[in-house]
Each structure stands twice: as C-alpha cells, then as structure tokens.
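Q: What would this chain look like folded?
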Amino acid sequence: MKMNVKNLLMVITAGVMTACTSKNDLFDNSKVENNTKQTYAQNFMKKYPNVDMNQNWDFSTKQSDYRLGSKNKARTRANEGGITTGSWYEVDNNTLAWMHEQLVEGEDNRRLGNPFYMTVPGNDFTIIPIYQGQAGAMWNLHVVVDGVDYLVWEKINKASLGGSDENQQDETKTGTIQIKDLDNDEWHNLHGQWYDWGYGHWNSLYNTDGTDRWTPDWSAKNQVTAVRSTPYTFHDFPVGAEMYFYLDVTVSGSGDWDGKYHEINNVGAHESSLKGQMLALQNVPRPANIAEDNEVMIIGCEDADLKDSDWDCNDVVFLVYGKTVPKPIKIEEGDDIEEVKTVRYMIEDLGSTDDFDFNDIVVDVTEIRTISPTYTNGVVTKWNEKGKRQEAVIRHLGGTLPFVLKIGNKEYAAGGQDTFQTSPDLKLDDVTGWTGLNGVHNVSIEVEQKNNEGVFKVQFPKAGEAPMIIAVDPSQDWMTERQSVPADWFYIPE
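A: My prediction, written as structure tokens:
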C-alpha cells in the first residue's frame, strides 16, 4: 500500500515544530538528531513526491560472480594486453552446419563439455560471434585475463540501433552480427527483438544455403543466405596467464516451460565458463577462410542457470582461431572456484539533509564461497561448499565527517577528511556476521556531526522510513557531490 505523502509530511512538520519549542532541546543531542532526521525525511518526500515510501530499500540482485579460487589475482588494470576490433568476417556456412549438429537447439548439451578456464597462448588469437540462438535476454561478453576484466562484445538490440517503430531499425547504424536477406541480397543487422526482422529469423540460421525451407519451429521460411560478424583479436597478453569468459546479463528474458509460464530474472548474473555455462568444442572443422596453420575452437554459451534453462548452450556461439588457441582446462572434482556475491551500500551521513547524493560513504560488502564440483556421468550435478568468508571495501567517501562504520561484527572508525570525493578502495578484512544476502542489512554508521551537535546513528531503513542507506548492485556508480540520485532508482507506483 502506498503511504500518503501529504499526511506524512504534516506529521513530520508537526514533529519538527515540537522539537524546536524548548530552548533546552537545543542542547539535547537526541532531540537534535531526531529533528535532523525529520527534516531529512520531509525534504526527501518533497524531492521525490511520487516515490512509494512503503517499499524495500534494497535494490540489489545479489547475483553471483565466479573467479578462480586461490589463483585469483587482484583486478587491477594490466599494462599489457589489448583487444582490437577487425573488419567483417563472413562465417563459413559449413561451420554453422557443424555447430548445429553439435549444439542441437532445445537439447541439454552439457555432456559435450565441462566447467573450464584457459591459459593465454604465445600468439595473438581472434574471437568472432557466429550465431545467436533463441534468447530474449540481453548480455555482454567479458573476458578476465590475469585477474583483469575486459568487455569484449555487446549484444545489439533495436534500441541501440535507433529503431523507432517496432518493425523498423535504423539501417545506417551497424551491428556486430549481420545476416544477408535472400530476397534482395542485402545485409541486415541481427538484433534482439522478437517482432523485428533480425530476431524473427535467428532460427533460420540453420539454413544458410538459400533454399526456401521452413525454420525448425515452422514459424517462417528461411530468408538468410550468409552471416558476417565483427572479429576481436587478443594481442600482447602475458603468455600462460589464466583467463575465462562470462556473459554479463543486462536484460532478462522470459520463457514457457512444460505448459507453465515462468519469468526468467537473472539480471546482473555472470554466466561463466567457470560454472559450466559455456562449452568449449575442439576438433572443429577448419573454415575455408581461415589459414591452414590455424587451430579452431567453438565456445557455446547458455545465458541462464535457472529452473527453465534448456542448456542447449547456443544462446550465443563464438568461433576462436589462431596459430594456437587458448586451451580449455577442466575444473576437476576437488578443484576450487569462488562464488562471489556483493551488495553495495550507499550512505547519507546527515551532514546535509537535502542533497540525496548517497555518496557520503559507499561500501561494497562481499561474501565469498569456495566451491568444488561433483560430476555424475560427466555432468556437474552438485557444487560443494568448502569454505566461506566475508570482506568489505570502502569505495568512496563523499563526506568529511568522522564516522564509525559497522558491518555485522566489524567496526571501522575514520577520523574524517579535509576534502570531498575520495575513492580509497580501502579493504576491510575480518568481516563476520553480515546478513545482507538474507535481506537483513546489519550495516550502520555513527557520525560525529558539526558544531558539537552530537553523534547521529544511521541504520538501514525499514519500509515507510525515508532512506539514509540504500542497497544496490556493485555495478551501480555513485553520484557526484550534491547530485541527487534519480527518482527511477526507487519504486514509483503507476
């Protein structure tokens, strides 16, 4: 139920007036604190009149990231290595035909591979998106090399191609995968809307020989004669460095399963080769347009690890080639990887009651589970927890007031700073007792206010309270000083 903001403002205004009627109250720190918080709440509702106050102020998805256990290195930008975008590569139709024989649409294809990572070879190598299967979700491909995260490729949708009408797109804008129309021999962008030209013909990539055959679901005739894609060449990375790929899900899809509709919601998930969301197919027939002395590999990706996942591992498929390609290394039983879940807390310290930039303290709190696979008939059937720890990193300090930050059983005191807007990336070890992943956010601060007004305590808000702390995903950037967070960060009833 939406709280009546007008009535609540009247209550708060009355409280503020009452708190100011006695001269003795000026010296009563608890009443000063209460008065400040009431003023803050009043200003918040004036700033965001359409926001439902009776909501949960936790906007984090708590999705999992995965990394290489004890072998993982700090994610700092390396001085070596780069990714270069090339010109069009036209996919060999024989390669597509072979791929479809292996990664059969709608079948569980996990038996063809294992959770894996790779190592960088002693030469450049190239990766090319060659196919997108039936998938309504949107995602970006990332690679982690030697602990450093790189964005490789972004899936294109109609919005990014400038389409205004649901059946049109701006053909002056070029996507990263294009398909050739049988009728007029023109190239068109392949992108992610079911009602648009590209998406409706994803399945027709089964037939690229120009014949007038129906797609596998009999929904449309084949109209695709060729596929071309943008290649990405990896160069100058440290030889032997560990690497792995993942899909960063930016928009979830939805699906129909066994006659029951289920919403797929995995926004923010990192669907990783480490967790078995990708297959590395070797012994791939060499395409005619790749030199004879090159090795070739195909990586097929599943974009969701959910109840309704079909595990055909062809939601997006990449071709990899080079003199030697990165060799997949199976994560065996007993080998460790880490599952990482992080919540970012953005905190107001009440030094100001009207800016709502939520950047006075920004802290990431993380729980790291060490897990190891169990295989049954060559397929991972269980991930076993071998250990768990918690840590926190103070990402940003936008305020100057001294504070004590409390996270579970951990306390950290800071004496204040002379300047606004510092990003210390200060790691706090020995964090224990944090319960934010269960929805109980035991994160708070005690802040020493200016002018001897006392120490104010700020806790994670309950529904109905004006938030001074919010929980978001770690990918959410903080605002600049005195730039209020946009209203659409919060729930606004229609």
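Residues 29-47 form the longest helix (19 residues).
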